Amino acid sequence: MSVRALLTAVVVLVGCGTPTPTGRAPASPGTAEAATLPPPAPPASPSPSAPLAVRRQRLLEAATIALPPGIAAESLPDPAAPGARVLQQYCTQCHALPSPAMHGAMDWPAVTRRMWVRIDMMAGDLGLRVPSTAERAELLAYLQGHALPVAGSLPPGVGRDLFATACSRCHVLPDPRMHSPPDWPVVVLRMTENMQRMKMQQISRADASQILGYLQTVSAVVRR
Ligand code: HEC
Ligand code: HEC
C-alpha cells in the first residue's frame, strides 16, 4: 500500500516535471477514440522485462534532473517577509533553497502548483511538513514580488537570437536591463554552471560570449 502510494507519487512527479513526447506512437486519426476505447497496450518500453526496481530507479533518477540549484538563505530578498520564511520552511524539504528570481511572476503559480501536488501526495508516507492555505498564498506573493523581470521587445543586434533561445530554456527570457554591463559576466557564468547542474545542454564558449556581448550592449544603451 505504501509502496503503491510512493510509486503513484513518483509517476505524478515525473509526469509533471518532464513532458516528453518521445516514445509515443502517433495517435490514430480519431483522437476522440482514445477517450472511449480501453487504453492501448502500454507503450513499448526498451526492456519490458526490466524488473520493477530498475524502472522505479529510472523514474527516481529522472525526477532529480531539474532540481533547482540552491541559493544561500542570506541572499534572499526581503528576508523578514512571511513568504521568505515559508520558502525556507517548506521548499527545502526535497532540494536546495530555490531563488525567487528563478522564474517570472507569470510562471510561479504553475511551478508552485506542481510542488504542492508533490507535498500533498507524499506528506503521509514521507512525513513532509505541509503548508496551510494562508502560507501558500504568502509564498506565492513573495515569489511573484521578487520574480525574474521579463524581457520586453529586444533591440536587434549580434547575439540577440542566441540569447533568446539559450536563456529561455529554464525560465522566462530575462530583461537585459536588469543588470549593468559590468554585472552581466558573473551572471552569465553562473548560468552556465546552472546548465551543468541542471543537466541541460551546455552552450559553447563562443555562444556565451556573444550572448554576453548582446546583454552588455543593450543594458549600456539604456543606462548610459
Ligand atoms: C516533495 C519534494 C519537493 C518539495 C517539498 C519541493 N520540491 Fe521543488 N522540485 C521537486 C522535484 C522532484 C523537482 C524536479 C522535477 C521538476 O522540475 O518538477 C523540483 C524542481 C523544482 C524547481 C525547478 C524546476 C522548475 O520548474 O523550475 C523549482 C524552481 C522548485 N522545485 C521550486 C520549489 C518550491 C518553490 C518549493 C516550495 C513550495 C518546492 N520546490 C518544494 C521536489 C520538491
Ligand atoms: C539550466 C537552467 C538555466 C538556464 C538555461 C539559464 N538560467 Fe538563468 N537562472 C537559472 C536559475 C536556477 C536561476 C536562479 C538561481 C541563480 O540565480 O543562479 C536563474 C536566475 C537568473 C537570473 C536572476 C538572478 C540574477 O542574478 O539576476 C538572471 C538574470 C538569469 N537567470 C539570466 C540568464 C541568462 C542571461 C541565461 C542565458 C545565458 C540564463 N539565465 C539561462 C537557471 C537557468
Give an overview in words.
The structure is a single chain. The chain has 224 residues and is mainly alpha-helical. Among the domains are: 73 residues, no CATH class; 64 residues, Cytochrome Bc1 Complex, Chain D, domain 2, CATH 1.10.760. The chain is built from nine helices and no strands. Helix 1 crosses helix 3. The longest helix has 19 residues. The chain is globular. About 14% of the residues have low confidence. The site of one heme C (HEC) has 23 residues, from helix 8.
In short:
The protein is mostly helical and 224 residues long. Helices cover 50% and strands 0% of the residues. Among the domains are: 73-145, no CATH class; 160-223, Cytochrome Bc1 Complex, Chain D, domain 2 (Orthogonal Bundle), CATH 1.10.760.
| Biggest sheet layout | none
Bound molecules: heme C
Structural class: mainly alpha
Terminal residue distance = 64 Å
Helix content range of the residues, please? 40-55%
What Rg do the Cα atoms give? 21 Å
Total strands: the figure is 0
Global mean pLDDT: 84
Summed up, the helix count is 9
How is this fold's topology laid out?
Blueprint: H1 2-17, H2 33-36, H3 52-63, H4 82-90, H5 108-126, H6 133-145, H7 160-166, H8 184-197, H9 205-223
Helix pairs in contact: 1-3, 1-5, 4-6, 8-9
Bound molecules: heme C (HEC) (2 copies).
